[in-house]
Write a structure and sequence with these properties.
The complex is a heterodimer of chains A (429) and B (460).
Chain A lengths: L6 E8 L3 E2 L9 H16 L8 E4 L11 H8 L8 E3 L6 H14 L5 E8 L7 E2 L1 H12 L3 H9 L8 E2 L12 H11 L4 H20 L25 H5 L3 E3 L11 E2 L7 E10 L1 H6 L6 E10 L12 H13 L8 E4 L4 H12 L1 H6 L21 H4 L6 H15 L4 E8 L3 E8 L1
Parallel strand pairs in A: 3-4, 3-5, 12-13
Antiparallel strand pairs in A: 1-10, 1-11, 2-10, 5-10, 6-7, 8-9, 11-14, 13-14
Helix pairs in contact in A: 1-2, 3-14, 4-5, 6-11
Chain B lengths: L4 H7 L1 H10 L21 E5 L7 H10 L4 E2 L15 E8 L8 H14 E12 L7 H20 L5 E7 L8 H8 L10 E4 L22 E5 L4 H12 L3 E6 L4 H10 L3 E4 L7 H9 L5 E6 L14 H24 L6 E10 L2 H5 L5 H22 L4 E7 L5 H4 L3 H9 L9 H11 L11 E4 L8
Parallel strand pairs in B: 1-2, 1-3, 3-4, 4-5, 5-6, 7-8, 7-10, 8-9, 10-11, 11-12, 12-13
Helix pairs in contact in B: 1-2, 7-15, 9-10, 10-12
The chains are: A alpha+beta (429), B alpha/beta (460).
The complex binds nicotinamide-adenine-dinucleotide (NAD).
Nicotinamide-adenine-dinucleotide binds next to helix 7 and helix 13 of chain B.
Chain lengths: 429, 460
């Protein structure tokens, strides 16, 4: 089979990420996604231009936002003739959206498209609990006023308690951090290693800001010009003073390692990335930062099986490497999403483990270790924050620009997602 | 922008009566340009001071092309009206003066004109360049025009302006864009000023075929400080006139910048112009448009402090943004290739300030930087002539922006009222002047500094 053409990463725009209930407390997903799109339009002169498609999504979504991306495009300066659709793959949404666009470009079905993601934990949809919902639906179905009154008469105070979405796995009832804590304990991931990784994330992100790295990747929003979770003066020592907040169920509390510092905070934000064919970019004199080479997804059974909730990328990467005839060491840069510092470390430990690689991946030899100097060189989610669906659309252009500035090279993206899923991809410049 | 209550008041029926009784100056509503507007709203009078005048011919040709009815007798009735019926403009060909005695002819022409020129009317005097005269009597006569024009501008009423254009020897056919600017409402807030045409040798260009409603069609224009204020309006005005705009501002102003860029269908470049490599970053961005034709150095800051309280960090930040950044970017433009860099026939327009000419209390750093801009323009003009390019500056006076809205009331009112047009200018007045300098047809205007200040009395 002739290999199809590769989609180019042309550029991107995101808004700074904001800690929950802070700078963007009153912004909706639609507001943020529209702002991110308009910044992209401005950067690349796309006013009234028709994109092949815009694909984006949000993890926490109001029911009125069923057509979130379309509404954002209609509110943006793009041509209203731009078709869209929403996707949702938890924390993998932004990367999956980019893969979907890239694949259509590769097949020649699109010349240009925008992938994105947005999330707000501040303007989260609040649902009425199921009891109240049943009462209200009953009242709605009632044909007479008397019927409505009768239905509503059944209301009790307990039914009025709203259901606020939590970062919990529906099938285990456990918070994502609790799942991660189990995995951290399983792999013996030490507190100091987590804090060091976290401090490095903050320091690297701060350096990237100082160097102007984000000047053409970001547009300020609602008074914010930088991710406000960033602590430029963060050190492992300071992080070492924080109290643990996530505990492995049934485990020894004194051995807990995961703190609010080495876990990503709830965050609001939106990110977009412009993908195109090389021809489309060349016609407009736009640079090609990198190409999307391949992608893979995986899922693990964290409910009945004994795999960690966030370990799916450990399975996705080797499958993708195999298909491309690459080893884990054949990369110049690695972008491993920092859901928790321990997640990154557990994934690396798994790839280094002969037992895991043999028993779980069916490999004769372990994938081995990576040069940690090549990991998340401009910081990642621990410092920037993690508006779930936006993260992939933050990482793709970050890595693409790193490769471009490097004068070429190959990079690996790995993102874990709720529901025991993982999305990974290879970029080359 | 702070609201001009005074203007509202004296323009109300009651206010007009009160103002008339107590002698408050009236605030005329200035006619401003919009696409499709005729060059003049009525007839024009054309006078010649001597038989040796060399510009009347081109003036006649331009007025004819613009469909303007022209009369030569300043006292003659026009269009069935009386001898006092209004005219939209009066133009004096004051070239060829041989002694100050010749000035009387200009007086005789202008005396009836002063009462006939209508609201937002235009009086334009065109003379020879004084420095090009060797005999004292000739040079004196030529130089006299400036005093006459500046004084007449202070007498003209109802938004009428009086300006002077000097035409270098042999440049008489190179003044079309200048005539059109000064006669049209694009020059609404330029009053009592002088501009020299053709004074930097070696210029080249043509105004033939110019679409005067869209005179910079197809050009690529960079505007610094475009997120807000004057820069934002410059971006809109250049886009209106046909250019593709690259809007530049600091990353922290990126959201407002994106609005500007999207409003004008251009692109946004988040860039601190004081950073190393700023010029290269601008050229790199413009490569997608195939290079750049127009660069407007508008970004500027004030860090006001009395000299007695000044500190060097504040001082340097003003000099860096307002002056050093422009110098560094110009170096890069000048060194760039014609094909995908700063194009042959390019235009640089920079923003000086009244404070750089007259000085301002508390503004030693700002005044220094803005006076420095004038030196920059003068020295760069001959360097650009090789590229058929030009560089010019506008020196705005009191312009209604967020910057002036933040002034104390007294200073603000003085800034507005103490000028011949008795009001503050609008950002668009500065933008129109910049857009005119940016025209390909303005090829003979180089090294000029034009005040856009309604003939502000401060340092006039
Ligand atoms: N408003 C007036 O009355 C007046 C009078 C005379 C001269 N001026 C001059 O006109 C120009 C525009 O003035 P304004 O009133 O619109 O001011 P403004 O402050 O509203 O706008 C200036 C813009 O320049 C940008 N800027 C500042 N430093 C920059 C840098 N390092 N890199 C990139 N962009 C930068 C700012 O972010 C801002 O958006 C300035 O040069 C000013 O000195 C203004």
């Amino acid at each position: 089979m002739a290999s199809p053409r590769r989609a180019a990463v042309v550029g991107a725009n995101r808004i700074p990420f904001a800690r929950s209930n802070g700078a963007y407390a009153r912004a909706s997903n639609q507001d943020m996604l529209t702002a991110a799109l308009d910044g992209l339009v401005a950067r690349f002169g796309l006013t009234e231009e028709r994109m092949g498609e815009v694909v984006a999504g949000a993890v926490l979504k109001h029911s009125r936002d069923f057509n979130l991306t379309r509404e954002a495009v209609l509110g943006s300066r793009l041509s209203a003739a731009t078709p869209t659709y929403d996707v949702q793959q938890a924390c993998g949404t932004g990367l999956e959206a980019a893969i979907l666009i890239a694949n259509k470009i590769a097949l020649g079905q699109l010349e240009v498209g925008i992938a994105g993601g947005v999330d707000t934990t501040s303007d989260a949809p609040i649902a009425v609990n199921d009891d109240l919902r049943e009462v209200l639906l009953e009242a709605n179905r009632a044909k007479s006023t008397a019927g409505i009154v009768k239905a509503l008469a059944g209301l009790r105070p307990g039914q009025l308690v709203p259901e606020i979405p939590a970062n919990r796995e529906p099938r285990t009832g456990m918070a994502m951090g609790e799942h991660a804590a189990i995995t951290a304990a399983h792999w013996g991931i030490e507190r100091t290693a987590q804090d060091e990784l976290t401090a490095r994330s903050h320091q690297n992100l701060a350096k990237a800001y100082d160097a102007g790295f984000f000047d053409d990747l970001m547009t300020p929003f609602l008074g914010l010009t930088k991710d406000n979770n960033l602590r430029a003066d963060s050190t492992a020592e300071k992080l070492g003073k924080l109290k643990p907040v996530f505990f492995p169920a049934g485990g020894d509390k004194t051995e807990a390692t995961m703190t609010a510092g080495n876990s990503t905070p709830l965050t609001d934000g939106a990110a977009t990335v412009l993908l195109a064919s090389d021809e489309w970019a060349a016609e407009r004199g736009l640079p090609v930062l990198a190409h999307i080479v391949d992608a893979e997804t995986a899922a693990v059974d964290y409910v009945h099986g004994d795999e960690g909730l966030l370990m799916a990328p450990a399975y996705a990467v080797p499958r993708m490497l195999e298909r491309n005839g690459l080893t884990l060491q054949d990369f110049d840069f690695y972008e491993i999403h920092e859901a928790f510092a321990s997640t990154v470390l557990a994934t690396l430990a798994a790839w280094e483990s002969p037992q895991f690689c043999k028993e779980r991946l069916g490999l004769d030899a372990p994938l081995g270790s990576i040069d940690r100097e090549k990991l998340n060189v401009h910081g990642s989610s621990l410092a920037a924050g993690h508006p779930f669906a936006a993260t992939g659309a933050r990482i793709v252009p970050t890595l693409a620009k790193i490769l471009h500035e490097n004068g070429g090279g190959r990079g690996l993206i790995s993102i874990c997602a709720a529901g025991g899923q993982g999305v990974v991809a290879i970029l080359e410049a | 922008m702070s609201h001009d209550w005074y203007s509202d008041f004296v323009n109300s029926g009651f206010g007009r009566a009160v103002a008339g009784n107590v002698g408050l100056p009236p605030v005329p509503k200035l006619r401003r340009w919009e696409p499709g507007q005729p060059l003049l709203s009525g007839a024009a009078l054309l006078g010649t001071a001597t038989a040796d005048g060399r510009v009347a011919k081109i003036v006649r040709a331009v007025l004819a092309d613009a469909g303007v009815e022209v009369h030569e007798d300043p006292a003659a009735p026009i269009g069935g009206g009386s001898s006092s019926s209004k005219v939209a403009a009066a133009i004096v060909d004051a070239t060829g003066l041989s002694s100050p005695r010749d000035l009387a002819a200009i007086q005789q022409f202008l005396t009836p004109v002063m009462r006939r020129v209508g609201p937002s009317g235009r009086i334009l005097v065109i003379g020879d360049v004084p420095a090009q005269a060797e005999r004292p009597a000739v040079r004196a006569a030529r130089r006299s025009l400036e005093g006459l024009v500046r004084s007449a501008a202070k007498e003209a009423r109802y938004g009428a302006t009086v300006n002077l254009v000097h035409v270098a020897d042999g440049a008489e056919n190179d003044i079309e864009s200048t005539l059109r600017f000064f006669l049209s409402s694009r020059s609404a807030f330029v009053d009592g000023q002088r501009l020299d045409v053709g004074t930097v040798p070696g210029y080249a260009g043509s105004s033939a075929g110019t679409d005067w409603d869209h005179p910079i069609t197809g050009k690529v224009a960079v505007v610094t400080g475009a997120a807000r204020g004057i820069g934002r309006t410059v971006a809109q005005t250049l886009a209106r006139d046909g250019a593709t705009v690259v809007a530049v501002d600091i990353p922290a102003a990126g959201d407002a910048l994106a609005h500007t860029a999207n409003d004008v269908g251009g692109t946004a470049l988040q860039l601190d112009i004081t950073g190393a490599g700023a010029g290269e970053a601008i050229l790199e961005h413009c490569r997608r448009h195939g290079g750049v034709d127009i660069v407007v150095h508008n970004a500027g800051i004030t860090r006001d402090k009395l000299l007695a309280n000044q500190d060097t960090d504040r001082w340097n930040s003003v000099i860096d943004v307002n002056l050093n950044a422009q110098l560094a970017i110009n170096d890069v433009l000048l060194a760039s290739g014609d094909d995908d860099g700063f194009h042959r026939g390019g235009r640089i327009v920079t923003v000086s300030s009244m404070a750089g000419i007259a000085g301002n209390r508390g503004q030693t750093s700002y005044g220094a930087s803005k006076a420095g801009v004038i030196g920059l323009v003068e020295a760069t003009a001959p360097l650009l002539a090789d590229k058929d390019a030009t560089i010019n500056a506008v020196a705005p006076g009191f312009i209604e922006t967020a910057m002036t809205a933040a002034m104390p009331v007294g200073t603000r009112e003085a800034g507005r009222r103490l000028s011949s047009l008795t009001q503050g200018g609008l950002p668009v007045d500065v933008a129109e002047t910049i857009a005119w300098f940016a025209q390909g047809a303005s090829y003979a205007i180089n090294g000029q500094v034009l005040r856009v200040d309604g003939q502000n009395y401060l340092g006039a």
